[in-house]
Amino acid sequence: MKIFLLGVIIAILYFVHAWYVENQERKSIAISKQREERALDGIKYLIKSHARTLAIKYNQKIYEDDYGNFIFDDWDREVSYFIENVVLRDSAAYDFLAGGEDSYVNEYRLIEVSSLIAEVANAECIKMVTEEKDEYIEVDDFTGEEFEEFCVSILSEIGWDARKTKSTGDQGVDTIGKLNGVRTVFQCKRYSQPVGNSAVQEAIAGQKFVRAQVAVVVTNNTFTKSARQLAKAANVYLLHYNILNSKNFQKCFSGKNRFYGFI
Q1: What is the domain extent for residue 239?
Q2: How many domains does the chain have?
Q3: Is the Cα torsion angle 262, 244, 217, 119 positive or negative in sign?
Q4: Full-model pTM
Q5: Does pLDDT of 258 surpass 60?
């Protein structure tokens, strides 16, 4: 009888221990899941707080080659840069992306975050187009001269001393502007296809001719790979018109933060 009771007690203790262990595992999994959800919510917030810039980069970095193929290489590099320099600076996001010893899990989470960045950028692109339509600004329908005047108006509204040049006599420079003592030439290109090398070459020539410190090419479209390579080598800014009034662009012309380079 004693042996039987001892066996019953051992069995009960075994099942109680098994239940306790299983219950603790469930709690641990639930806590881990909640932590991951909070981290992912934080990542979503970070991405959405930079939605407008990401949308502009999305438009700039994805381009169509001469064979009709859309090239995402530059966009993929931009996403990697954003994750490394924005997302991973948040400790919870870092733990989420670097959590677990299995590298496959890390890769899966990176893909998840990269897809989320693309979704937010694409949604913001659609929103920007809708806002333009709501404001009756059909930039793609502008003539070249109307687009130049549109860019001048944006610059003037945010404090630039900007003016259109005459059609001749300025080596093809469309607009000359000045902000915080920095003289800048703008080539404004309203194109139905990616802007090529010639616009960058015009900006370089115009910069030298009027002795400007900075050269910028502004468009409603994107830029070809060769145009971006030349601009990077010559320190010419390549901008979508939506970025003209952005804080990042304005910082380039403010006191000690002033620098010249490629955007």
Answers
A1: 139-257
A2: 2
A3: positive
A4: 0.53
A5: no
